[in-house]
Specification:
The chain is an all-alpha fold and about 100 residues long. Helix content is about 65%, strand content about 0%. It has one domain.
Amino acid sequence: MDNKHQNTQGNKSVKKYVEKFDEFLIRYSTLHKEGEAQILFRFRVGLKDVLRTELLARGVNELEAAYALVQDLDSARTNHTLKSHDYRASASRLSPIFPTQ
């Protein structure tokens, strides 16, 4: 049964990975007999290291809570990256405070 789950986040967004993991669970409904801890383990294994570490550090032990947390973290990271990029782009268009001579 371990060979069935080879889906990892890779370059996918967290949202897409969660969707694919849900599809995997539906397709292999026998996994529901494994128990929450084993299913959560399978989900964590496929995540990028930074997200996996956050789940472990925060002691998340329910799949739905894990889904929510990693999506929130990914959203916050994406928003921070966009704002940082916007700041650099707008800063380059500003005139210097002190005129050059």
